[in-house]
Amino acid sequence: MKVIIELKHQQHWGYSIFYTEDDKLTIRVRRQPPLLTLPHLTIAIDAGHGGDNIGARGIRTNIKEKDYTLLIATELEKVLRQKKAKVIMTRERDTTLSMYERITYLKQKNPDLLVSIHLNSADKDSVNGISTYYRYIGFRPLSQAVLRAMLQTGLKEYGNVGSFNFALNGPTDYPNCLVEVAFLSNKGDEKRILNPKFRQLVAKKIVAGIEDFLRRSL
Ligand SMILES: [Zn+2]
Questions:
Q1: Alpha-helical segments (H) within the chain
Q2: What is the CA(218)–ligand 1 centre distance, in A?
Q3: Ligand 1 mean position to 120 CA, how many Å?
Q4: How far apart are the CA of 113 and the centre of ligand 1, in A?
Q5: 3-state SS of the chain: helix, strand, coil percent to 5?
Q6: pLDDT of the chain along its 218 residues, tens only?
Q7: Domains of the chain, with CATH numbers?
Q8: Handedness of CA 63, 65, 66, 70 (dihedral sign)
């Protein structure tokens, strides 16, 4: 059987499919938020890694990915709060959290949108730049808008990648996007990541990307 659901808005805002106790297969389609501006939305931020899970290491300085994802996430939180958005953080400290714990927490908080922050790493130290990821095609516009805005930081474009097997791109309940800000394995990118001014700029541009996505979704 094939079910086609026609939506009123061009941008779908997520759905869930589940069985109820009386064995009914249920599809719940999430309504697009009535006001697509930050003061009316709850934005979730996930700082990648944390605690025992260190992530990648800086090529020159050996800095830990988990520390810098949190620094960027905290800057992002600041900018979003200045713009009067409600913000949810999966972690605010150096906490060990499994993907399952993050997803469960997010499901319970039910945000309007999620951004996950990571830093990339490659075997070849010449590889550099910004990339964004999504799993389901319906959420591609968010990751494209964030990538476009992030290019204004001066980072090279590494790409926008779909069908990506990242746990937090898995939920279909709300639009979500993974941002791999830059490469810790590249000297130039690492230098940028170490600079607080650059991290502030990254936060501003991610928010600009979210706002662009919201405008285009009207
Ligand atoms: Zn990572």
A1: 65-82, 99-109, 140-150, 187-194, 196-217
A2: 32
A3: 6
A4: 20
A5: 40, 20, 40
A6: 899 999 988 899 999 999 999 999 999 999 999 999 999 999 999 999 999 999 999 999 999 999 999 999 999 999 999 999 999 999 999 999 999 999 999 999 999 999 999 999 999 999 999 999 999 999 999 999 999 999 999 999 999 999 999 999 999 999 999 999 999 999 999 999 999 999 999 999 999 999 999 999 98
A7: 33-217 (3.40.630.40)
A8: positive
> CA-CA distance, 82 to 80, in Å (whole number)?
5
Q: Which two tokens stand for residue 92?
A: 């605010």
Q: If you search the block for the tokens 């993974």, which residue do you land on?
A: 178
Interval between CA 117 and ligand 1 midpoint (Å): 8
